[in-house]
Amino acid sequence: MDEQSGRLFGHIRRHERTHGNTIILLASSNGHEADAGRGGPLRGGETWLYEGGIGSPLIPRVPDVMENSAVGTTNGKSIVSSIGLVVSMVELAVATKPVDWSSDGEDMLGVLPGNQNKPRTSALFWRRRSPPGRTATLEDPNRDLAMRDGRWKWLCKLNGSETQFYDVSSDISETTNLVQRHLDVAARLESVLLAWNVTLPVEGVSSFRPRQHCLAANVIMTTSMNSTLHDVDGVVEERG
Fold it and tell me: Which of 39, 86, 140, 232 could lock onto 52 through a cystine, CB 3.0 to 4.6 A?
């Protein structure tokens, strides 16, 4: 892949027709395979809903938009979803959208060239699909559902049990469960995530009757619960 990518990028650089007007977004699949990579401080890997399993690197080349000071830098603050890349490219190309076209991806054009650290304004959701031959059960230590809303990360089983709640802005390794320290935030995330899961078809995972929310009731849902991104290997669904 490195060799072929190098040939492609070299061709783009050598030709005036493509050098200044070709955008390149280089990304990988989410997570690393067990025994085939490392996630550094990130917990988990492929098929897991911790940051090491749902994150992937993104390297953009945006000529005539990227400032020189941004070249070679790393943005570890902004959350960019693949569905947002589609919206960003449509906006950049000033493309005419079909009348009935809509997307819940957010325009992150200011983030891609490194000119901004703009945060995503709506939440992202995940539900884990079990690979063939493996069914998610309550005994499986991996969580089935996850939600990322700004600094907060919520994980739980399909029925809402075995909850985990992290502040990933200060705990990127997801080691300190804060579920009893921020009850109002935890209750909101739990309610929104379980309500989102009810809207999904039962596909590749066991279905459980949601338990009563153990943290609070009558929580007002204020977070968007729409868009869909299916990961290429069919293991993780991302919604936001």
Answer: 39
